[in-house]
């Protein structure tokens, strides 16, 4: 017998020594198996199953199913010390996890950290992750499946999540201190993940606080001119050459991947008027214990960027708090996952589903419908945006350039910071995401400040030039 087979057999024996009996249906926790766990005749209302244990085929986890519906599965899983699963991703569901016992080394995307008893974390759909048990470990995991048939599933999504929340709340009443708080935050994250996954979601009004909802501008349904043509791109290259005194952007063909100028139709949506600020993001950090915006010197060096690590220090948070005098500046040093987590949290807090905009949504909001090259017209005007042409070579308070507003009233569509979008780069398995935002505070020229311009960045990147804003469905 090979060493690998002996190892799997040993781990299974270890688990079976902990679990007195293996009975009931095997729970593989994949989307196609959900129907096997929901009692026939449930009509998608969801039913709690009697707890049962089952052994995963890969020999890593022993699973105890706690509750299952058509869109949510909760289970308790035992993993023996030393067990490591293969790096993988879930293409069809989000996972929200509460570590009940033991320690686990987690890798989610590019981040690696230690999870201890009482901690909670989330790995969204499509993100590569891996677990290694440093001790015999038990976790409670809730999987939320956003994809599926419309109609009944979407109509009952809010109700199903509400049922899950009530059970988590019930468990929390039997706990005290830090663990109770962690479990409640876990419940909030679970609902947030569900809200970002469904096109419609009813969130418990007991958690909702509409007062913290950011101000938005309405982008009406209809067609707009997207992309660029040869004339626009040539104009951008000339602006860059004038601003920088060289033709590097032309030589490197910066704008050649922009879609050709064409007409696009979008449904109505609302976009946040201002970039998300440090003050707004601070409420999220305080409520969820998510790491505050920062980056260490070694990680910054791996990015290979032109800005020095010393320059990042003015943007870095200290002791979980934003830098002094920067509460109304756009939050930076946040990854794509950070931005998505903030959107999920805000969805819970306000009772409204928020998410990152797509590239097309951002472009329409920034340039209007007539295909103008800049938010205000066809010519670049450095007095209308925070760029290195006339700016402070730093972020500025959001909305400081009202004359640079888009035709719909969105502020900072050019300059200040680039912005994460919801669009992954095809073929990268979510490792890279598209960035829009009309340039940033360090741009000259400013050919990149056009709404049609865009580029990709590693999704795990925490840059001093990248922030974000959110969208929601129109009222």
Q: What does this 3D model show about the protein?
A:
- 27% of the residues lie in helices and 20% in strands.
- The N and C termini lie far apart (64 Å).
- It is an alpha+beta fold and 475 residues long.
- A hairpin with a 3-residue loop joins strand 2 and strand 3 (72-79).
- The protein has helices spanning 3-18, 34-37, 152-155, 157-173, 177-197, 230-244, 248-251, 278-288, 297-303, 309-312, 336-350, 359-367, and strands spanning 52-55, 62-68, 72-79, 94-101, 104-108, 111-115, 120-123, 129-133, 137-144, 216-219, 222-226, 262-266, 269-272, 354-355, 418-424, 432-436, 455-458, 466-467, 471-473.
- It has a 6-stranded antiparallel β-sheet with strand order 1-2-3-9-4-7. The chain has a 4-stranded antiparallel β-sheet with strand order 10-13-19-14. Strands 17-16-15-18 form a 4-stranded mixed β-sheet.
- It is globular, with a radius of gyration of 24 Å.
Give the secondary structure arrangement, pairings included.
Blueprint: H1 3-18, H2 34-37, E1 52-55, E2 62-68, E3 72-79, E4 94-101, E5 104-108, E6 111-115, E7 120-123, E8 129-133, E9 137-144, H3 152-155, H4 157-173, H5 177-197, E10 216-219, E11 222-226, H6 230-244, H7 248-251, E12 262-266, E13 269-272, H8 278-288, H9 297-303, H10 309-312, H11 336-350, E14 354-355, H12 359-367, E15 418-424, E16 432-436, E17 455-458, E18 466-467, E19 471-473
Parallel strand pairs: 15-18
Antiparallel strand pairs: 1-2, 2-3, 3-9, 4-7, 4-9, 5-6, 5-8, 10-13, 11-12, 13-19, 14-19, 15-16, 16-17
């Amino acid at each position: 017998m090979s060493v690998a087979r002996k190892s799997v057999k040993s781990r299974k024996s270890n688990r079976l020594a902990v679990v007195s009996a293996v009975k009931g249906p095997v729970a593989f926790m994949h989307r196609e198996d959900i129907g096997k766990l929901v009692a026939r005749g449930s009509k998608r209302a969801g039913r709690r199953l009697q707890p049962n244990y089952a052994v995963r085929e890969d020999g890593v986890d022993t699973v105890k199913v706690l509750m299952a519906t058509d869109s949510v599965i909760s289970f308790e899983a035992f993993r023996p010390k030393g067990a490591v699963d293969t790096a993988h991703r879930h293409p069809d569901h989000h996972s929200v996890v509460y570590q009940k016992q033991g320690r686990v080394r987690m890798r989610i995307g590019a981040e690696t950290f230690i999870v201890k008893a009482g901690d909670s974390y989330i790995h969204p759909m499509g993100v590569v992750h891996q677990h290694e048990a440093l001790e015999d470990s038990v976790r409670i995991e809730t999987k939320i499946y956003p994809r599926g048939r419309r109609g009944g599933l979407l109509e009952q999504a809010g109700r199903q999540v509400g049922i899950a929340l009530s059970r988590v709340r019930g468990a929390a009443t039997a706990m005290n201190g830090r663990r109770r708080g962690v479990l409640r935050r876990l419940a909030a994250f679970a609902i947030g993940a569900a809200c970002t996954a469904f096109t419609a979601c009813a969130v418990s009004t007991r958690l909702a606080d509409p007062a913290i909802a950011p101000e938005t501008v309405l982008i009406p349904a209809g067609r707009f001119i997207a992309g660029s043509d040869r004339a626009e791109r040539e104009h951008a290259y000339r602006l860059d050459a004038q601003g920088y005194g060289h033709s590097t952007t032309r030589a490197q063909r910066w704008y050649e991947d922009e879609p050709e100028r064409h007409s696009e139709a979008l449904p109505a949506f609302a976009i946040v008027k201002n970039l998300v600020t440090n003050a707004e993001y601070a409420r999220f950090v305080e409520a969820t214990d998510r790491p505050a915006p920062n980056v260490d010197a070694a990680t910054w060096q791996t990015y290979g960027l032109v800005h020095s690590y010393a320059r990042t220090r003015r943007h870095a948070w200290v002791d979980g708090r934003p830098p002094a005098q920067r509460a109304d500046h756009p939050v930076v040093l946040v990854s794509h996952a950070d931005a998505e987590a903030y959107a999920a949290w805000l969805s819970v807090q306000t009772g409204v589903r928020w998410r990152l905009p797509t590239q097309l949504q951002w472009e329409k909001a920034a340039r209007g419908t007539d295909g103008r090259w800049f938010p205000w017209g066809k010519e670049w005007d450095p007095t209308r945006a925070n760029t290195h042409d006339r700016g402070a070579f730093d972020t500025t308070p959001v909305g400081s350039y009202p004359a640079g507003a888009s035709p719909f009233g969105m502020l900072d569509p050019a300059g200040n910071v680039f912005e994460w979008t919801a669009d992954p780069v095809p073929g990268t398995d979510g490792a890279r995401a598209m960035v829009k935002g009309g340039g940033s505070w360090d741009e000259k020229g400013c050919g990149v400040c056009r709404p049609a311009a865009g580029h990709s960045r590693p999704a795990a990147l925490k840059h001093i030039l990248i922030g974000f804003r959110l969208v929601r469905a129109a009222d």
